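If you are new to this repository, start here. Below is one unmodified record pulled from the training split, so you can see the exact layout before writing a loader.
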Amino acid sequence: MKLLIDNLDGRGAMDCTGFVGAREGARLVRKLNCAAELKVQLLAGTPDFVSPACGARVTLVRDDGSNLFAGYVASLPVHQYAGRAEQGPQYVWQIRALSDAMLLDQKALSPCPPLVDRSAGSAFRQLTENTLPGRFDLSSVEAGDPIPHFSADASRPWSVAAAELALLARCGCRDEDGALLFAPLGEKSYSLSEGDTAFTPDALQLQSVNRIVNDLTVMGETEPGAHVKDYFVGDGYTTTFYLSQIPFTRSSQTAQYSRTILDEEYAELDPTRWRVTDPQNVLSVSGGQLQVAGGAGADGQTRLDFVERVELGGATVLQHGDVVFNAASDGVIGGMYNGAVSIAGCIAGFRITPSGANSNIQALVNGALAGTPLATKPGHHYLFATQLYPTEIYRMQQAYHSSPHPSGNARGGEEVSCDVRVVLEVHDIDPANPASQVAPAIVLYDDVITNAPGFCTYCLINAASMQCAVAFTYIFLATDALVRSALPEQAPRTRRAGSLREGAECRVSRSETLQFYPEYIPAANETIEVTYRGTGRSMARVVNSASIAEHQHGADDGVRSRVLHVAAPKARTSADCEVAALALLDDAGQGWTGEYQTWSQFLPGAAADIFPGDGLNVDVPSRAATFSGIVREVEISEFDWLGESPRYTLRFVDAGDPSLAFAFGTPEVRLTRALQAIDVSQVDDIYLSDLTGAEITTVTSTTVSVDAGADIPAGGGIEVRYADAGWSKTNSRNLIGRFTSRSFALPRYARGQTYFLRSYDGSSPSKYSRNSTVLHVDYPL
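And here is the target side for that same chain:
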C-alpha cells in the first residue's frame, strides 16, 4: 500500500509512504452520505521531502493498483516542531484530505428551476451535472423513488443537497475512483455472525435502543385546509373586500417553494433550463430574443422544451413571451403536454395556423381547437399567457420509508386527482398605438379541464413551420386564489390575482383581504367569487391498537406516546403526516446501535471492503441480537503499509433506525387539543372525499341556496355548521342541519354569513370529509 501526494506542479506524484509517522499516523473515515476524510501525519526532516500544498492530489493505493482513497488536500497542512535530528529540525505535518466529491462543494450550486416529479436519482444526477458537468461517472446512480418537488438552495454546498436527496429516497451516496454512486441502503449486505470462525466476540459492542411507540402524533408544515368560496357584490366604488379565512399560499409556506420557476431573457439556450430538439437548426438566440425560422414540417420534430415538468397544482401563471410573427406560421406556442409532445396530446396551448401572409391564434385544449381564432397583424406584438387554477395545491403525496418499505417500495407517493381551470389569453399590442399597451388581454379560453394530469411537459415552441421571435418567458407561482366576477346577465370572467406589474387586476393577501386595483374596481351589482384554501397545520395521530394491547400489564395501560415534527421528507399535508406516522410505526420497537472492530482480512462476509450504506446482518444469539443493520460509518486505521491489513471499525444501526429515512425538528406550534386517533388499520379508509365542488347558487335576504357539488354518500348526507368544529351525528352544538339531498336551502340572518359543510356516510361511526368546505356570503340584505 502506498500514500501518493501530487502537488499538481508538474513534478508528478511523490511516494510519501516512508514519511508516515507511525502505525497510527493515518486514519480514513467514511460517513454515510458524506465525503470520505483522510488524516495523515507526515514526519518531515529530510531534504527530499516536499511539503504538500492545499489542493494537492492524494491517493491511497493498494498493491493491485486500486484506490482505497482518492481526493485532495482540503486545507493548508498544519505543522508542529518535533525536535532535531542529524538532518536538522523535524516537523510533523498534519494533512487533511477529502475525497473527490469535495470538488463539487467548491462550486456554487447552479441556479436552476425546482426539480419536479423526478426520481431521487435523476435529481441527484441533474444536480451533479449542473454543478460540475462531465467530471464524474454517473453510471452507478440508481433511480430511487419519485420525489414531488426538490429545490436546491444555491447557498448550500452540493453535499448537503445530495445528502437530502439520499435521505428522501432512503439511499446512500458516495464517490469512488471518479464515480458517484447512489443506491438504496443495504443493497449490498454482509453477515456478522458469531458462528463465523473469524468472528471476534470482544470486538463487538452492542447497545439496545428503546423505540417502542404505539401512539404517535406527527406534526408537519403549514397546509392547505378548508375549501373556501367567498361571495361578494360590488357597488362601483369599493375596492377592498374582507375574506372569511386566512388564505394558504405555497410561496409563504416555506423557502422550499420559490415564487419564480423560470425567468428567461434569452442570452443563450441554457441546458439547465431548456432541452432543444432541432434537426434543421431552426432555433437560435440573437439580439436577446429566441429566433424561430422554419421547422421540420412535422408535429413534435422541432421543439424547445423546459427541462422540468410543470405541476398542475396551485395557481401558476406561464407567460410564454412577447412574440412577433415575421411570416405565416404553423405550430404550437406555450403547449402543455401529457407525455410526448404532439398536438393530439396537448392539454392546453396556443395553436398557430397560417392565414394568407399572416396567422391565426386559437386555443388548443385536449388536442382540439376551442373558441374563436385571433388573426395576427404585421408588426404587432402578442403576449401569450396561461393561467392555471387547480382545485388542489399538491398533486403528489410525499413518499416515506421504513425497513419494511425501503427504496422502491415506499409508503405514500400517490397522485392526487383534481380539476384545473385553464385561462388562455393573448395581449395584442400595436406599437403605433400606446393605448394598446394597457388594453385588456383577449381571453381565448376560460374553462375547467376535469381530472387533469398532475404533471405535464412544457414545450414553449413546437414548430411545424414558424417564423417568429420570442422576447422572454416567465413562469411563476401566482396567488393561490381564483377570483371570478360577473356583471348582471353576463358570464363570469377570471380576474388575475397578483401584482399590478404582472398584469393582475387584484391582490389577495394573508391579511384576509381581496383588494382590486383602482382601474379594475368591480361595477355596481357585479358579483365576485373568490375560491381558495384556508390555512391549517398538518398533523395526525396514529395508534397501533395491537401494540397497546400487547403492552398492557396491570396498571400500565400499554400506551407509549410520542410527538414528532417531521422536517424531512416534509409533511406538507395531514395525509402526509398519517403516512409518515405509519412508516415510523413500522419500526417502533427494540432497536440497536453497535460497533465492530476487525482487520481487513477478517471483514464480515469476507468482504474486500465495506462502505457506509452497506447492510450488516447481525446474528449473535448469545447476546439476544439478531437483526438487519445498516453501516453508518467506517473508520480505517493502523495501516500495515507492507502487509495491507489495516484495522476497520464499523459503526452501525439497525435497519429500522428512523435517522436513515427521516430528519426531525422542533414543532413550530403547540398542540392545543387532542387529535382524533386513527388506528394503523384505518389510515387509508377514514375520510370521505372533500366537497370541492360545493357552491352557493342563489342568495336572498333570508335564505341561501346551496349545491353540494357531489352525490350524497350512501346512508349519509351533508352536515352544515356555523363553525368548523363538532363534526359528529351526536353533536348538535353550532349545527345548522343535516341534509340528504344535493341541493338545499340555508337560513341567512346577517349581511355576512358563513357556513361550514362536510359530507358523512351511513357507517357507524360515520366517516366525514377530511377538510370542510366554507361558503361565505357578504351581500347587502
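Two things worth knowing about this chain: The chain has a mean pLDDT of 93. The first strand starts at residue 2 and ends at 6.
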